[in-house]
Amino acid sequence: MTILNFSPLVQNISRRMELTQAEHGGLHALRLGLRLLPHKANILLANDRPTKCCMIIKGYAYRGKDVASGRQIMSFHMAGDLPDLQSLHLEAMDHDLMTIGETLVGFIPHLDILSLIAKHSRLGAYFWRETLIDAAIFREWIINVGGRSGYARISHLLCEQMARMMAKGLAKEFGAPLFLSQTNIAQATGLSPVHVNRIMGAMRNANLVNTKDGRLTILDWRGLVAAGDFDPAYLRLN
Known about the structure:
Blueprint lengths: L2 H14 L4 H8 L4 E5 L4 E3 L7 E16 L2 E8 L18 E14 H10 L1 H27 L2 H18 L7 E3 L4 H8 L3 H13 L3 E4 L2 E4 L2 H8 L10
Antiparallel strand pairs: 1-5, 2-5, 3-4, 3-5, 6-8, 7-8
């Protein structure tokens, strides 16, 4: 464990509040087990009963679940996220958590996090707030899949991921690594990969986005926001 390994989490928290020296010390005292996982690796599976929370240190992951029509992705996660905080109180997982690309994951014992929360109430409030923001994202995704056209769904999804990456310092000037495959996008928006391919082509032709050399560049942010009916308020990025 090194302080560097906790940097994404500390940076996330520091965007919400100014940490005291004692809070810094409490975070860095957490035990952290590291695992470098390959693409499409299982971090957790439905029905697992974890005793540790995971933190994405580098790379990407998604929450997903198999349904009759295939796989449904319910959220994407990146550096600094703790996507299974609910496992502190919900004993069994009800979905899978899987990597996208090679991903460095840290595992923190539940007992350590509960002890940290008991000693530092503001950090407990931060973790609680993060689960509420997760819930807000879930609500927005329900609206996205159920109430928007395919073009708007993908526009909204790209806006959300770019906004989150820019807030975390993972993107600059509306350009970032394109970590989502067309299959990922299809499974997150309830569309077929063929439909996603057509829509992404239409977006490129409209000069809204560019996807080249493994990067996503948003050429017309306002245009993509309008196309996706995107309002970032639910992300609580400030």
